[in-house]
Amino acid sequence: MTKLPLVARLAGYRAAHATGRFKQLPVNLTVSVTYSCPSRCATCDIWQKKVDDLSVDEYARIFPTLKKVPVWVTLSGGDQFVRSDFDEVVRLVRAQIEPSIINIPMNGVITERIFTLLPKIAHNALGSQLVLNLSVDEIGMAHDRIRGADRNFEKLKLVADLIHDLKKTYSHIVLGVHTVISKLNVDRIADIEREARAIFRPDSYIAEVAERRVELKTTEKDITPAASDYRRAVAHLQNAIRSHRSSHPVARLVESLRLEYYELSARILEENRQVIDCYAGWASAQLAPDGHVWGCCVRAESIGNVRDHGYDFGAVWFGGVGDAFRASVRAHECACPLANASYTNLLLDPQSLARVAANMSGVSGVLGSRSPERE
Amino acid sequence: MAHSGLGTAQRTSIRRYVDRVGAQYGAQSVLDGPVDGASDERGGHSWALAARGIPVTVAVMRADDEAMVRKGYVAAGLKPPELCCVADPLAPRALPEVDLVISVDAPRCLSEWRQYLAVLARAARKVLVVIVRNPEQILSRAGPPSRDTRELTRVLWGVGRVREHAYLGVPSWVFALQHFRGAGAMQDVVQSPAGMAVRLVAPLHAFVVDTSPRTPQARRRLGLAATIPS
To answer: Contact, A305 vs A316, CB < 8 A?
Structure first.
């Protein structure tokens, strides 16, 4: 099956968003494979949720119904490595969806399982870029306290070493470090970023704000930093990117998108509104471990369960229930800086794209940067 | 078995590389595997280690080869190695356990090369060095199995932890060019990820597989991998 070019598909999402017709399957899919997790993070209570996880056989029936549309697939949890069959899920994603990018956030806790499965996952993901994002919220024992997991930071170092070894034989692997910026660490982001880069030697460093998400059971938690504090933190991250610009075109594109995302997320926190249109429910989606399909994980409103529709994702996605969610999002009844959806939203916003292009080519001053250096 | 020779520079490069790995891992005993796709100097890959006084065992599959191995060692001014004749290299426990095991171009010679590498990994207490012809080299002489680096790496990651992937025997003119452009020191070994020029001209590439398990679980896994290769 020939894939529709991404540009054409993005145009289709804009048309669907504007008219409510011509819906397509999502280009950005998050598959949460389990809620189970050994960590007890201060910023997440997802481990409290107990459901009947989809089996590998069930995924094998669901993924072909996505018709190879998703370009970017995130395999999240919980802790995915709780599942001993996680490598099989990755194999199915690659074989049946053929995304360009498979992104796996990792807490690095169950090291023995990780050491067993990660080489298999690397092999099973061949053909896609495999982004392995280590969750690093602090340095040393402070990280262990935030994540509620003994010796987690030391284990992360072992996992990073393994990934560096894997990169020697698997060139499609990218090692990332990901920090959730919460009230617990917002004042230390500059140090965390610098030390994490030195310790883990990642190919990329990204940060996202801690949010109140239904998926994570954090709607009552006071974890989101004040907008002014978050602005200071992202200003540091933006300056760090600007002062170490890559010469490689793809890396520059990623950096430019990241600069724009940081600015967007800070503005959403400050203004508490959708600064640009959100395409959750059109271009991005999430498949929950028990088969429910969501437009996004922040609201986690089910638009149907694939188990009730013969494991046909399309039947759920194009069914009428999702339209109420989409109408609500289109009416700007919600606003959040969820990174996964925001990157898709940036690609679908012409002005943001123009700024990304200008930033990439080094002429951002011509279009006027929205990101004053406040540090 | 399809054997073919290596050039002097390539043989020297292998010896130096194996010697460096042996020193790095503190190998106190060495096995030069019985299946060798570059057999014009049987047992010759471990000459540098033998010269440092490290006990070397050379496994051969025919008694006739033993004389050739001894002759090579004597010609190199070395004490003849321990010899071990194994009719079936896949037979369980046929090979002695040593710290470092060397395999050169085995996948090209043996259809059951996956099982063979698993047997070698089980014999290696510390490290297994697997050297094959580089399939990316222009006019490569790598046979069909060696062409599939992906399958080879899958098998190697199944029997241990691949710590190193390097290109061997890189011609000096490549380094002369890189040196001229301000790149690093001249040597004939380049670690992965290597540039296109190196990948296109290097005749061999090597994998260093750490076979010393980290934990009891890993030891059990390694035992299983060595008995049930897939």
So the answer is: yes
Q: Is B80 part of a structural domain of the chain?
A: yes
Which residue from A minimizes the CA distance to B207? A169
Q: What is the pLDDT of residues B32-66, one digit of tens each?
A: 989 988 767 788 899 999 999 999 999 998 888 89
Residues of B with CB below 8 A from A123's CB? Answer: 150, 153-154, 157
Q: Does A130 touch chain B (CB under 8 A)?
A: no
3 state DSSP class of B52: coil
Residue of B162, B155, B161 whose CA lies nearest to B192: B162
Instruction: Give yes or no for B153 touching A (CB within 8 A).
Output: yes
Please, what's the b/e burial string for A231-253 (b: 16 or more CB within 10 A of its CB; e: otherwise)? bbbbbbbbbbbeeeeeeeeeebe
Assigned token pair, B108: 């090209």
Does some domain include residue B215? yes
The ipTM is 0.83
| Contact B4/A at CB under 8 A | no
Q: Is A116 on the interface with B (CB under 8 A)?
A: yes
Domain presence at residue B159? yes
Residue type, A93: V
Which residues in chain A have Cβ-Cβ distances shorter than 8 Å to B161?
A: 115, 162, 165
CATH class for the region spanning A25-242+284-332: alpha beta
**Chain B hits for A165, Cβ within 8 Å:** 161-163
DSSP strands (E only) in A33-128: 72-76, 101-106
Which pLDDT tens digit goes with each residue over A151-199? 999 999 999 999 999 999 999 999 999 999 999 999 999 999 999 999 9
What string of DSSP letters covers A143-199?
A: HHHHHT-TTHHHHHHHHHHHHHHHHHH-TTEEEEEEEEE-TTTGGGHHHHHHHHHHH
CATH number of B24's domain: 3.40.50.150
pTM here? 0.89
* Contact between residue A123 and residue B150 where contact means Cβ atoms under 8 Å apart: yes
Measured between CA atoms, the residue of chain B closest to residue A127 is: B150
Domain positions in chain A are 25-242+284-332
Concatenate the DSSP letters of all residues of A306-354 into one string. GGGGTT-HHHHHTSTHHHHHHHHHHTT------HHHHHHHHHT-HHHHH
Pairing of strands A173-181, B161-168: unpaired
| Structural domain boundaries enclosing B65 | 8-227
How close B154 comes to chain A (CA, Å)? 7
Is the predicted pLDDT of residue A351 greater than 80, yes or no?
yes
Number of domains in chain B: 1
Q: Encode pLDDT of A163-176 as tens digits.
A: 999 999 999 999 99
* B114 lies in some domain: yes
Q: Is B220 on the interface with A (CB under 8 A)?
A: no
The answer to whether B156 contacts chain A (CB < 8 Å) is: yes
